[in-house]
Structure to design on (321 residues):
């Protein structure tokens, strides 16, 4: 794949001292052991995703993923999956999400087709068997989220029709909405609403997309470098309800969590913030030891080991303790 289409995802540690004495409300010991020099594991709706480095085409790069290992809510291996984009070569996986039944949506790209690149969202059942395929055309769905109603939301960027190695020169919507059956049902948030620079839906750090019962949370690039970022919230009809720049608080790798009651949290190194919607400002909040991995309902999930078998802990969010 071209360098523009490949990016590493990095994790971060958060300070233990800020949370002395805080007890988790749930703990899970898994059998998952992170791969050496690979992408940081994902936590998605109770599932862990690990990334075996390299793949069947022999490219050893640690930030290139041709498949993934899925560990279920019980902490045990559910399946190993290698993704092959039909009609393409050198398939690369970028993001995975799961619904409440364990069905997955996987975003991937490959070399091939008239535009030189093929972009898809592959649908899998709880055993990793393919059940559907969404051809997204020139739209590259870099990040993905499955809503409670099983519909699929994607954050990404669009190739130019003529200069296919570059982003579209014309305006386009960076967020796409697909039905559970794979039909596109909406497109939102124009590229032109962001400043010039990297594409807002760029596939590397810091971009994320999450969805609750009534809202989308999007962490997008907003400027010349990945250090320029913006948090955007939208209702499920695509109307923007919140926009907040992160330039003053985000320096380096970060992770975001968006809880079921629409509270946003951001960890940056040893610092931890929550969004005050009334002032549109990010304010310091209490954190826990380990690596923030996201939200599970109204709880925040942390990974406690990055070397041996992964330990997960669930904590109540700060506002509800």
């Amino acid at each position: 794949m071209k360098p523009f289409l490949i990016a590493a995802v990095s994790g971060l540690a958060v300070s233990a001292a800020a949370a002395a004495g805080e007890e988790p409300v749930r703990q899970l010991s898994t059998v998952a052991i992170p791969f050496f020099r690979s992408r940081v594991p994902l936590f998605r709706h109770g599932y862990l995703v690990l990334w075996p480095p390299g793949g069947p085409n022999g490219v050893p790069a640690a930030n290139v993923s041709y498949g993934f290992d899925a560990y279920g809510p019980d902490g045990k291996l559910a399946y190993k999956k290698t993704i092959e984009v039909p009609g393409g070569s050198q398939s690369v996986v970028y993001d995975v999400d799961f619904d409440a039944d364990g069905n997955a949506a996987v975003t991937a790209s490959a070399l091939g087709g008239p535009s030189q690149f093929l972009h898809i969202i592959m649908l899998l059942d709880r055993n990793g068997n393919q059940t559907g395929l969404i051809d997204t055309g020139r739209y590259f769905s870099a990040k993905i989220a499955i809503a409670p109603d099983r519909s699929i939301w994607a954050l990404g960027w669009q190739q130019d029709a003529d200069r296919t190695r570059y982003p579209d020169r014309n305006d386009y919507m960076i967020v796409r909405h697909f039905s559970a059956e794979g039909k596109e049902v909406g497109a939102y948030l124009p590229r032109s609403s962001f400043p010039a620079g990297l594409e807002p839906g760029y596939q590397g750090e810091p971009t994320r997309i999450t969805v609750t019962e009534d809202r989308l949370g999007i962490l997008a690039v907003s400027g010349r470098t990945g250090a320029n970022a913006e948090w955007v919230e939208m209702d499920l009809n695509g109307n923007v309800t919140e926009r907040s720049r992160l330039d003053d608080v985000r320096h380096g790798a970060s992770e975001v969590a968006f809880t079921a009651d629409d509270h946003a949290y951001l960890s940056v190194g040893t610092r931890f913030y929550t969004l005050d919607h009334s002032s549109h400002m990010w304010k310091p909040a209490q954190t826990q030891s380990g690596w923030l991995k996201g939200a599970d309902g109204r709880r925040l999930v942390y990974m406690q080991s990055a070397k041996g078998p992964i330990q997960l802990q669930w904590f109540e969010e700060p506002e509800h303790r």
User: Anything to note?
Assistant: Residues 1-21 have pLDDT under 50 and may be disordered. The domain at 11-320 is CATH 2.120.10.30 (Neuraminidase).
